[in-house]
């Protein structure tokens, strides 16, 4: 009997994990795109998603290499590709921002290399959570995205 209960509990656990991947945030989410390398990607309506999952995957791999980080460092990140500028709490709108609870929001800026830099920068805030002032010298090459 205990073995049967354990098996049922394991099946329920697995079903729960599967449901979390396909329908995050407690139900059907029309903005959900994919889970890429442990990053749950959401896209605002109106954003062109053609090739986006592949591009985000490449940008994640480049970012991990750049920051010398493992996939575990960014596990659980939720990435939102917004249709408009992002309110990071400044008087101006930004192209990207990292919020508590490992939530990143970026804009789909037109130039793909800039998008990669943008995501690389924001993932840096996840990987170096105590360096919000960009004191690590590696920030220099990711911060230039603002000039793209
Ligand atoms: Zn920054």
How would you concisely characterize the structure shown here?
This protein has helices at residues 2-22, 52-66, 112-127, 140-143; strands at residues 32-36, 39-43, 78-81, 86-87, 93-94, 96-99, 103-106. With 148 residues, it is of the alpha/beta class. The protein has 2 domains: 1-28; 31-147, Zincin-like.
Q: Could you characterize what this model shows?
A:
The structure is a single chain. This protein has 148 residues and is of the alpha/beta class. The chain has two domains: 1-28; 31-147, 2-Layer Sandwich (Zincin-like). It is built from four helices and seven strands. The protein has helices spanning 2-22, 52-66, 112-127, 140-143, and strands at 32-36, 39-43, 78-81, 86-87, 93-94, 96-99, 103-106. The strands form two sheets. A five-stranded mixed sheet has the order 1-2-3-7-6, with helices on one face. It has a two-stranded antiparallel sheet with strand order 4-5. β6 and β7 (103-106) form a beta hairpin. The longest helix has 21 residues, at 2-22. The radius of gyration is 17 Å and the shape is globular. The relative contact order is 0.12. Residues 121, 125, 134 line the site of zinc ion.
């Amino acid at each position: 009997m205990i073995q049967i209960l354990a098996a049922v509990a394991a099946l329920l656990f697995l079903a729960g994990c599967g449901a979390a991947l396909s329908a995050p945030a407690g139900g059907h989410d029309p903005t959900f795109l994919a889970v890429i390398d442990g990053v749950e990607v959401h896209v605002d309506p109106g954003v062109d998603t053609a090739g986006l999952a592949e591009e985000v995957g490449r940008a994640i791999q480049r970012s991990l290499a750049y920051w010398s980080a493992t996939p575990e460092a960014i596990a659980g990140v939720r990435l939102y590709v917004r249709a408009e500028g992002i309110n990071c709490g400044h008087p101006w709108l930004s192209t990207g921002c990292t919020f508590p609870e490992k939530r990143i929001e970026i804009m789909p800026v037109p130039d793909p290399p800039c998008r990669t830099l943008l995501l690389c920068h924001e993932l840096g805030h996840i990987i170096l959570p105590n360096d919000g002032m960009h004191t690590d010298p590696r920030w220099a090459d990711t911060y230039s995205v603002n000039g793209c």
